[in-house]
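WARN no homologs supplied; continuing
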Amino acid sequence: MPQTETPAPRIEAAPRTRLRWWTELPLILLVYGCYTAGRLLARGDVSGAVDHGLAILRIEKALHLNAEHPLNRLFTREAWLGVPADFWYGSLHYLVTPAILVWLFRRRAALYRAARTWLMTSTLIGLIGFTMLPTCPPRLLSAGHGFVDTMAQYSSYGWWGSDASAPRGMGGLTNQYAAMPSLHVGWALWCGVMLWRHGGTRTAKAAGVAYPLLTTIVVMGTANHYLLDAVAGVAVMGVGLLLAPFVTRAANRFMAVLPARVPALVAENSAGGGSPIVGGGCQTSAGERIPRQRRGQDGAGAEPGASPREAGDGAPDWGLPCSSEVESLGKAR
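OK structure emitted
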């Protein structure tokens, strides 16, 4: 009879680990904590921050760039523009970005991991800029440079005081010299890309274009950032986008190695430090030193044909798997 070739079994890729909010939330809070801590590192270097701010102004003057002054004068003169801009700067940065993350997590789960990694990688790069290049924002330069702090001017309209967007009395907890790069612009760009690519409606796409553009105007009009700060924020997001695949692969390797290493370490510790009293039949827990403790079915002291429960002098059976059962389960998987 002609032999028929048995088709090879189909090998399917291992399913991607399902994301859980109780694992994602601590991760996001950790990165945000690093973001906040990084902003505080350089707040004592005031003279260096002022020098860096003046250097940016000189570079913009050499490049014939001067978007900050006219916008700042407009927001200072027109309260109906300045007050909404201050609310925009003080709140949307912390509301829209988490809202987009939640939306992706719930409605675009397949895209969420890559989008979250891009945002976090870019944020950590921005922390390097805050630490290495503390920069005085335009609003904190001397009055001779022609800038007005609109948030201080309109502080009676909102919750903030004279210390940027911090609530009144909490200005000491912020770093006001973390202007370069502008993550207000960077995060707004990330939100805009998510809305444009995955929003699905014309309204979402329009919001994806308007939000980063308006945020850029707001950060300059309120004298919180220079134009080059906004450009640096866009550049940081670009670098983060390029590095995100490498970060994802490194994280996947780590998560693949970790589950294999933990049982191996446990086995090594058990082999090196196990109690000589505990039998190999897994009848007692490691470290027990109970007189006349249970033994295996074929061990000494057990009656022929007796079950482990009968041979154990009434010792309770906790139903825990012994080492041979664990090994067989591991092989079956």
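Residues 118 and 244 are 5 Å apart (CA to CA).
OK
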